[in-house]
Specification:
This protein is α/β, with parallel strands linked by helices and about 240 residues long. It is about 30% helix and about 20% strand.
Length: about 240
């Protein structure tokens, strides 16, 4: 079973300038994910895809196997993620003459995951025969209770109302927030579709403190604090 890990890191960032190489807890943000991929001991190849030469140089410093230069059409903030991952996998296969069975993408803006999150998500896919796997956390806002929308005529309504009124959030159906931390595909599935939601898609749940997706300066500050707290508790 050959596995590849892709780490896709675009150079441009509107919320946090140079986000993917900003220093977090002493090392560049992308380095946390590279180290986690290595420590998992799951992968034949760890590859970084980026349109930024600076990001690719940092990736080399932290020991990735291959750096893939992303074409301009896949480097805009409107580019979908799955085609970017597919391009990276195909580029690595072409360069090395390999064919992978399992493709795992780790988002470098999710540095608070732990290695077990990666290992378990892959294990579930392989042992349960899933087409792909997503990671998520329990929803902070329920579409059945306190997630709201405005209608075209200006009314405020629940996003997903039920036939009977729910007066406690605990009584609403269980829902989840995708955290974008770990994606896993069988190679043939990644090749065949841009849809992440398939008949046998599996879900691996992570706690909120490991699910922060860094998109703002506040996210960076929270992540730094949580990392320091985690280190202190380990000592």
């Amino acid at each position: 079973m050959k596995r590849i890990c892709t780490i896709c890191a675009r150079g441009g960032s509107k919320g946090v300038k140079n986000k993917n190489i900003r220093v977090l807890n002493g090392i560049p943000l992308i380095a946390h994910t590279i180290i986690q991929a290595r420590d998992s001991k799951l992968f034949d190849i760890v590859a970084v895809s980026s349109d930024s030469d600076e990001i690719l140089e940092v990736a080399k410093k932290y020991g990735v196997d291959l750096c893939i230069k992303r074409p301009d059409e896949l480097a805009s903030d409107k580019a979908a993620k799955i085609p970017v991952i597919r391009h990276c996998v195909e580029s690595v296969e072409s360069q090395l003459g390999l064919k992978f069975d399992i493709c795992v993408d780790l988002d470098c803006t999710s540095p608070l995951r732990i290695v077990d999150d990666i290992v378990e998500t892959v294990r579930i896919l392989e042992e349960e025969g899933r087409e792909n796997m997503l990671t998520a956390m329990p929803s902070r806002r329920s579409p059945y209770f306190n997630l709201l929308e405005k209608t075209s005529d200006g009314r405020v309504v629940l996003s997903k109302p039920l036939d009977s009124l729910i007066v406690r959030r605990q009584d609403s159906p269980e829902t989840f927030d995708m955290n974008g931390s770990v994606y896993v595909w069988r190679r043939e599935v990644l090749q065949a579709t841009d849809n992440a939601f398939l008949k046998t898609t599996g879900l691996y749940l992570m706690p909120e403190e490991r699910s922060i997706d860094i998109d703002t300066e506040v996210d960076l500050m929270i992540s730094e604090a949580l990392m320091k707290d985690r280190a202190e508790n380990i000592q």
